[in-house]
Design brief:
- There is one protein chain.
- This protein is an alpha+beta fold.
- It has 2 domains: 2-48 and 175-357, Beta-lactamase, CATH 3.40.710; 57-153, Methane Monooxygenase Hydroxylase, Chain G, domain 1.
- The protein has 11 helices and 16 strands.
- The protein has helices spanning 2-11, 50-62, 89-93, 112-121, 140-153, 157-166, 180-186, 209-214, 226-237, 250-257, 334-351, and strands spanning 17-24, 27-35, 43-46, 175-176, 194-195, 202-203, 222-224, 241-242, 245-246, 261-266, 271-275, 280-281, 304-308, 312-317, 322-328, 330-331.
- The strands form 4 sheets. Strands 2-1-15-14-13-12-11-10 form an 8-stranded antiparallel β-sheet, with helices on both faces. A 3-stranded antiparallel β-sheet has the order 3-7-4.
- Strand 13 and strand 14 form a beta hairpin.
- The chain is globular and about 50 Å long.
Length: 358
């Protein structure tokens, strides 16, 4: 059923191609590329990139360089501007800080230093008590986390993630900001993303090319094959290690994926959602058919992961030892995309005869 849905999406003009990887207990059971996408194509993850900033923060926490309830201003003093001095790292990781302004950070071509300056100068939203209101921070919070990593470790965020997370987990073709020479070496392996709202695929040049790929956007610029993105979730399911390479302790993993924020209405998504530290925890109890960034009606309550704008989802379901990474290259609009992925997630569990978890 899953394969049929993926090809129906191509026929309906929702996407042109994509990749799907599924494993159980670390063993691959599905590793597909379909449509115009090759198995080794580098796909754009969009917001499915966000958990890597959370993981970097967790690693620094384990090294004793910070605490999760430290205020952001302890590491970025200039962040205190306009009422943000009480916001903590935990608030940022749970999207409860209240400084959601995009300020042209996502794809505006802003240099790193300028992006950090704009985040630090942003105003805290009116009547927002940090930790008591929720609203998804598309870009701003993740730049703040990335800069904290840079200041504490000394390496640019993109280099840190590459060395401390991607390379140990054999995510060799994964990047959050890719050197120009590597982009050119990959050549046709670099998958494009299309706007398919009209039913006709239209390129999005502002998200493609050497300049866009080189830009480090901590919450959105991850690229790599779905298979390798899934390696990260296989490591989380195995207590922070994969094939003998450890990136963090089981205790740190538990902190990241536990429900840190529960029952709050998200003022960006306009829906009640639960959150871990940088991870979307399964929120189907608030409406399996309607919850944004969901994992379908059959995923167990402890499932966690993250999705990306109209293109991607990667998650782990500890109940079944299941990891899923699906990335497609067409953005058909929010409603069509939600229906598309919801049906595919349901079908994955049904095809694997795991629907009992509903």
């Amino acid at each position: 059923m899953v394969e049929a849905l993926l090809h129906e999406g191509i026929e309906a003009g929702l996407h042109i191609g994509g990749q799907l990887y599924i494993s159980r207990s670390g063993q691959p059971i599905v590793d597909w590329a379909f449509g115009n996408i090759a198995p080794d194509s580098l796909m754009h993850w969009f917001s499915a990139t966000k958990p890597f900033a959370a993981t970097a923060i967790a690693q620094l926490w384990e090294r004793g360089l910070l605490s999760l309830d430290d205020r952001v201003v302890e590491y970025l003093p200039e962040f205190a501007a306009h009422g943000k001095e009480d916001i903590t790292l935990r608030h940022v990781l749970t999207h409860t800080g209240g400084f959601r302004s995009r300020v042209d950070l996502e794809w505006g071509g802003v240099a790193w230093e300028e992006a950090i300056a704009r985040v630090c100068a942003a105003r805290k939203e009116r009547q927002w008590v940090a930790g008591h209101r929720a609203g998804y921070h598309i870009a701003s919070g993740w730049y703040a986390l990335g800069e904290i990593v840079r200041r504490l470790d000394g390496r640019p965020f993109a280099d840190y993630v590459r060395a401390e997370i991607f390379e140990p987990l054999a995510m060799d073709d994964c990047w959050v900001g890719m050197p120009v020479e590597r982009y050119e070496e990959y050549g046709e392996r670099m998958a494009l993303v299309y706007n398919t709202e009209s039913g006709t695929a239209q390129g999005q040049s502002f998200r493609e090319g050497t300049v866009a790929a080189a830009r480090c956007v901590p919450g959105a610029s991850g690229r790599g094959p779905a298979r390798q993105l899934a390696y990260f979730y296989e490591a989380l399911l195995d207590g922070g290690q994969r094939q003998g390479q450890r990136i963090m302790s089981p205790q740190a993993v538990e902190a990241l994926v536990a429900r840190q924020r529960t029952g709050l209405f998200d003022h960006t998504f306009k829906h009640v959602m639960d959150w871990g530290l940088g991870f979307v925890v399964n929120s189907s109890i608030y409406g399996a058919e309607t919850v944004p960034y969901g994992y379908g009606r059959h995923a167990s309550p402890r499932s966690y992961g993250h999705s990306g704008q109209q293109t991607s989802v990667a998650f782990a379901d500890p109940e079944w030892g299941l990891v899923v990474a699906l990335i497609v290259n067409g953005m058909p609009g929010p409603e069509k995309h939600h229906r598309r992925f919801h049906e595919i997630m349901n079908a994955i569990y049904e095809d694997l005869e795991l629907a009992i978890a509903a």
